[in-house]
Structure formats: C-alpha cells, structure tokens
C-alpha cells in the first residue's frame, strides 16, 4: 500500500447511513442481527455476463473504515449526527462476516455477489463503500473481458487513465488487468498493484523535434530498438520508412493511432515486410472498443491500445448493483411496493455445468436450505471473505483472480461470448 | 485539505510521459519552450454546451505533483526510466505558466480550456493529471447543468456516490454542486469541499422495524418533524397515511423512490393536502436523468434526488478533452496525418454577445495576434491560473465558480438550453 490511499475510508459514505444509524441507536434496533445482500437486478443492456471485480479493494478499504478524530470532528461540525452516535462511531469496528463471489467470478442477474452479516448498525454504514467499489470495478472488468475475448489472444494495453477520474483510473487499470489486459499506461497502478506498465511516446514527442526521423533516432537511443515508434504524426508511409531507416529491420513495433486502422495495418504490414522488418509488430490505438477490436481480427494487428471505452465500461460505466437488507433477526424482509421488488432472506448460489464444463444455469436458493441437489460438475459460488471482522487467510492475489476469470470464461456457452446484445449467457433460477 | 488526498499525485501519469522525458533529456530537446493546449474537439453527442470543471482540483493536485523517494523508488524498481531521468524528477517543480477558462465557464468545440507554457519536460508530464481531472469533472458538471436547467429552480440532491468509484464520487459531488445542485449525499464531499450534505433513511430502515409506522416514529424522534419520510417501502398511500399519523401535518417531506413518479407525486400531493399537510414537500428519486426531470416539470414535485445519471455524465462519462503540443520555441506545430488534425500555435479566445447579453459566438484566435475587434459586450475567456509555477492569488472559490456558471447559463441562447440533441449553442469561429 501507498501514501496515495486514504488514511480513513469512513466518509465514503452517504449521509443517510449515519442518520439511520442515529435513529436505530436511539430506538434499540441498531443491534438487530441483519443480513445485507449486494447484487445486480440485471446486467447492463444486452450484456451476456458480468465480471465481479473490486472485492480485494473493498476488503482493504474495510480495514481502513475507521472514524478517527478527523472524521468525527467533521461530522460534529456539520451536525450530521448527535453526540451519542459520534461516540458509537469512534469505537466502530466491523465485527461481522462477509461472504461473496470471489474476484474474477462471473455474475448474472440476482447473483448474491456479496453478503454482509452483522448488526444493523455495523452493516448499514458499509453500503456506499461496498457499492462504489464493486459497481465501478465490475463495470470496467465486465467491459474489459469482452474486449479481451474479441482480441483473441493478442496483447491489450489499457491506456484510458486520461479519460477517467485520476483515482478511478488506477482502479480501472486494476480491473482491466484482472480481465486479461496485458499492461496499463498508469504508473500508479504499476506501483500500487504491480501491474506491468507500458508506453513509449506521443505525437508531442515527434512534434518537439526538428523532424520525425530525429525524434525516432532520439527515442531509439534512449529506449533501444525494441521500442514502439509512433508513425502517424504526418504521413504513415513516410513515417514507416523513417522508422525503419532509423531503427533498422529489428525495430520492435510501430503504433498507428488514427485513421482506418484495418486498412492502415494491412498497408503497414506489407510495407514493413517489404523493408525486411518481418518481426516488427503493429500496435493500433484510437477509439477502440470491443466491436472495433473484433472487426480487426482478420487484420495483421499484434496489439491493441484501448482507452476511453474500457475505463468507462464501454457504455455501462456502472454495474447497477444494489445493497439491500434481506434479513432481520432471521426473518426475511423485502420492499414490495413496485417493480423494484426484492427477494427477502439470505441466499446462496451454485452454478450448474455440463460434464464438458459449460455452464448451464445460476441457481440462487435460500441459505437456510434446503440445498438443491448438486452434481459433480456444479459448484458453490460464495466463499468466506471476512469472519468476525477479520479478512480470512489466503485471499486470492490479483494474479489468481485473473486466472479464475480466464477459467470462468471458458465455461461460458459460446453464444454467451458473442458481442451482440442478448440474454444472459445462463439463466438465473431462483428456488424457494 | 484532508488525509484522503494523496500525498503525491506524481504517478497519476502515463508511462509514456516519462519515456518521452527520458529521451528528450538525453537529446537536449527537453528544455525547449513549449505550449500545450487542453481542449475538446467536439461536445458529447448532441450536447449544446460544456461546463469547465475541475480546474480548482487540478491546481491543488499540481502542488502535490512531486516525485518523492516513494515515487522514485517505484520507478526505479520497475525500470520505467534511467537514472538521469530519476535525478531530474527528484527536483521536479513546475515552473511554467497556466492560463485557462475559469471553473464554471462554458466551453465549446476547440475552446482553449487550458494552456500550459513551460519547457517540454515540465509540461509533458502533466498530461494525464490535467486530463483525468478535467475530463471527469467537466463531464459531470456538463450533465448536471442540464439537470439543473430542467429542474427549473427546484432543489436537486446528488446521491450517486454508490454508482461511482469512491474518490470519483467525491469529485462528482463537487462538480454537481458547481453546476447548481443543492446538496450531496456524500459525506467526504461535505468534509473536503464544504458542500451541504443531505439524507435521512433508506428502505432498509423501514424493513428493520416491526412496522412502517414504528420506523417513522423512530426517525421523527431522532431527526425531528422536518425530516423526510420514505413512504414507498410497502404501499405508498398507506405509507403517507402512516407518515402523517406519526408526524402530524407539519412533516417536512416525503420521498418516493420508485414507480411512475409523476402519477405518484400527484396522488401524494392530493393525499397530503387532504390530510392537512399542505406544506409537506415531495421529494422524488429513482433513475432520474435530465429528461425525466423535465418530464416532471408540471408535477407537484419539490425536490429531485439524482444518482447514477449525474455521476456518470448522463451518457457521456468523459468529456473527450485532449492535451496537445501546439508550439515549440515559438513555432506552431500540429499533427496532420488524418481527420484528427489539430490547429497549431497558442490560441486565445473571446465570446461575443448581443447587447442583451446573449452569447453569439466563440472566437478562437492566435495568441500572438492580431486580436480581433472586441465589442463592449464581448469578453476574453482565459484568465491566468499559474505564474512561474505558483497559483495566482485570488483563485475563485467553489461558490464563486458556481455563481459564474449560473450567470454564464443565462447568456446561452434559448435553443442552447433545450435538452434535445443538436448543434453547439454558439458556433466556434477560428481566426488566423
């Protein structure tokens, strides 16, 4: 962890959580045993699956969820809550349990992605923190996973930091890496999470110099012949000629950042081959999303640089997950005034698979049972994350979560990997 | 400022900025005097105007843009740059100038929103930081301003934190407030920026209790009769009856969070009036965007709670601004390979107005002159923000920027305030 992490995460909280707490402390209901569930009522428009991301960040933020003097003073000055509530907050430590889908797991409508068990008081104040992190990170990972599928094994570099809030950019780099991106441009993500970073030069570097070839020679002298030269500042054909003149045929890669990338990649490949630079790779970037990536599948592209679309969730910048009270003192509860109905009671989930490993359905059932019959290819989806306030041992690393997702995507029925809009890849079946 | 601000902002930077720096330090071009401009090539699809937001946050982040031992060690370990570059970074202080549109100003395609003047080395490394902050904050403020126009003077509460990255949520609350929102749910935004915070209870609070009226009585005891009771957990009509039974006709407000809000608001108003609660206000929330807000204009709604749509820029989560090198040692430079052409040379801008105060056009012209003729109703748009590395005195407060936007919106031609898609409210005219 780094200095760039907040010392306390306790005010990443909505005002109403503390006023509910104040009222509940006053009337005695604050100590009732509650279960809150975090889930998505639906996937973003036409998506086939969602990817759980952010769990690791949430567990870390939970450890820093402390009302220190700084937070208490701020709350006192703004009169958000009364003195009794401030005293309670001063001692706040989450002492409950958290279960959930591990990072890198797929989710579908109604999947119980996170289950928080504890007193009303200790669990209600975590709503915003949990949702902010999971809604953001899962949105990015869900979009990124589609792009990785579309790229079909080619290298993917996340370079969208400039199009996202500066801290969201770091989390987005993490989520994209989780989803299978190869590297990020974001240096803070490199420091904080150990994600490989990548980058060479922008058009500004070429324009800074007296001519393109001078810029290329300078870059080669500093970064070596395996670097990537950006060839589209003036004229791409002339740029490629200059690149090979400066670097020789052992040049690592060229990057094209504008224009009709398919046509340009083909022309560039022919030109490079003609110049003997058969191993020089072609990196393309510039307004790529999963559809544009897929459209380039037949072209001689070796790597994609993806910016805006991945960090903004490619049309779905949030996952729409909610955090709902489902059980009070063992009694199922649910809102029931409208179309936004929820299912009361704590739930568990398993995913059924064919013997081939292909997923068939998401089964969501009452946690108290009865447990549905479970075939040898089915698996339970929730795992313990926090016990009595402490993160469990052996939480997965980012690399392990990345591998989990890779394996999970192999289980998606082939229709579910299509980029086109449609139904979730597997249906959610609610029992009980 | 608070503990939740990073100590150093220096790694909110893309890898390629430091590799460009390394190459330029090596070949001597790093010290060339440069001008970078930050601008948007276009507004998000069909938008009529953009709102500049984030400048204040950027100036603060710039003061914390320092490569301390922690950053240098991370860069050394990951071998991003060579030792000479690390030594240069250790002494990094921005010593140049920044001019720009003040926060709360409108912008249009090509408006020179920010101009950074300095050596290549000191200016190139600010690209990602500047773009992350302005792209995010302006996206939220631009969407929020449309919602505020649509609400036509009614109270607006930003409550979207849960649908955004936890730090982005704080910045979004600030941007929404800048754009005219009345309050935010986000407690960190309250602490960090002094924005009024608001909130009372969620459905969970009602479900926690043995019945709805018990929950209402508890809330009233803790928060007083001016509170807002959430009446749609079970049945809205019964909920309103229970609310007035518990609070009496002096109840502050009710909130409806689901269903057909127009119909429900009308029914609720009639019911409240019938119960003698003529001053009890009606707050509505639930998937509101600028169009839904406008559609409720004729209904008896007193305040709107807006979540997802405002924090995600209502379909445009980033502003698409870019940071381009436009001048090197006084010589205009520009990329020219494709449709993404840029105009070289440092630019200035003024906005022409009719004698009535209505804006007519955005005039962007070469900074070196000639200055276009300027009528008494026209005004220059850039102001000094940083001089020789130091923020200028008397930077506007958030309240002043909020007032600036309020006045600027009055100058927009009436067609430009329409929510429907169309051309920018005023054309940008490029001279020279």
From TrEMBL, chains A, B:
InterPro entries hit by this protein: Aldolase_TIM, NAPRTase_N, Nic_PRibTrfase-Fam, Nic_PRibTrfase_pncB, Nicotinate_pribotase-like_C, Quinolinate_PRibosylTrfase_C
GO molecular function: glycosyltransferase activity
PTM comment: Transiently phosphorylated on a His residue during the reaction cycle. Phosphorylation strongly increases the affinity for substrates and increases the rate of nicotinate D-ribonucleotide production. Dephosphorylation regenerates the low-affinity form of the enzyme, leading to product release.
Compositional bias (Basic residues): 345-355
Keywords: Glycosyltransferase, Ligase, Phosphoprotein, Pyridine nucleotide biosynthesis, Transferase
Positions of the Quinolinate phosphoribosyl transferase C-terminal domain: 140-309
Catalyzed chemical reaction(s): 5-phospho-alpha-D-ribose 1-diphosphate + nicotinate + ATP + H2O = nicotinate beta-D-ribonucleotide + ADP + phosphate + diphosphate
Domain Nicotinate phosphoribosyltransferase N-terminal stretches: 11-135
EC category: ligase
Gene3D superfamilies, per database record: Aldolase class I (3.20.20.70), nicotinate phosphoribosyltransferase (3.20.140.10)
Region described as Disordered: 333-356
The enzyme's E.C. designation: 6.3.4.21
Pathway the protein takes part in: Cofactor biosynthesis; NAD(+) biosynthesis; nicotinate D-ribonucleotide from nicotinate: step 1/1
Protein family: Belongs to the NAPRTase family.
Stored NCBIfam families: NAPRTase_put, PRK09243.1-5, PRK12484.1
Functional note: Catalyzes the first step in the biosynthesis of NAD from nicotinic acid, the ATP-dependent synthesis of beta-nicotinate D-ribonucleotide from nicotinate and 5-phospho-D-ribose 1-phosphate.
Name of the protein in its database record: Nicotinate phosphoribosyltransferase
């Amino acid at each position: 962890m780094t200095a760039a992490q907040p010392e306390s995460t306790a005010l990443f909280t909505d005002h109403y959580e503390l006023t509910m707490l104040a009222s509940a402390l006053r009337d005695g209901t604050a100590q009732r045993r509650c279960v809150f569930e975090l889930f998505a009522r639906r996937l973003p428009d036409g998506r086939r699956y969602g990817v759980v991301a952010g769990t690791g960040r949430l567990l870390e933020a939970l450890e820093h969820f402390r009302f220190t003097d700084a937070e208490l003073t701020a709350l006192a000055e703004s009169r958000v809550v009364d003195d009794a509530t401030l005293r309670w907050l001063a001692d706040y430590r989450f002492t409950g349990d958290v279960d959930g889908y591990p990072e890198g797991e797929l989710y579908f409508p109604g999947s119980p992605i996170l289950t928080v068990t504890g007193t009303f008081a200790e669990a209600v104040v975590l709503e915003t923190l949990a949702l902010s992190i999971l809604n953001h990170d899962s949105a990015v990972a869900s979009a990124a996973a589609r792009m990785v599928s579309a790229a079909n094994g080619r290298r993917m570099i996340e370079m969208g930091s400039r199009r996202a809030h500066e801290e969201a950019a770091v989390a987005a780099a993490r989520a994209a890496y989780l989803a299978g991106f190869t590297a990020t441009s974001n240096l803070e993500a490199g420091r904080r999470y150990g994600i490989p970073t990548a980058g060479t030069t922008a058009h500004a570097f070429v324009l800074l110099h007296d001519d393109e070839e001078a810029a290329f020679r300078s870059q080669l002298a500093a970064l070596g012949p395996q670097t990537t030269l950006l060839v589209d500042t003036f004229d791409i054909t002339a740029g490629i000629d200059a690149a090979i003149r400066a670097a020789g045929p052992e040049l690592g890669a060229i990057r094209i950042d504008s224009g009709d990338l398919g046509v340009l990649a083909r022309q560039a490949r022919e030109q490079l081959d003609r110049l003997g630079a058969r191993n020089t790779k072609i990196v393309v970037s510039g307004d790529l999303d999963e559809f544009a990536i897929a459209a380039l599948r037949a072209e001689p592209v070796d790597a994609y640089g993806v910016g805006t679309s991945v960090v903004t969730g490619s049309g779905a910048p949030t996952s729409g997950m909610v955090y709902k009270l489902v059980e009070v003192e063992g009694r199922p509860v649910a809102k029931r005034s409208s179309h936004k109905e929820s299912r009361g009671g704590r739930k568990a989930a398993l995913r059924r698979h064919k013997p081939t490993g292909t997923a068939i359905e998401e089964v969501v059932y009452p946690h108290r049972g009865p447990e549905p019959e479970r075939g040898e290819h089915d698996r339970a989806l929730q795992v313990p994350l926090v016990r009595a306030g402490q993160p469990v041992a052996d939480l997965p690393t980012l690399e392990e979560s990345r591998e989990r997702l890779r394996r999970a995507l192999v289980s998606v029925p082939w229709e579910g990997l299509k980029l086109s809009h449609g139904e979730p890849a597997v249906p959610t079946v609610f029992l009980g």
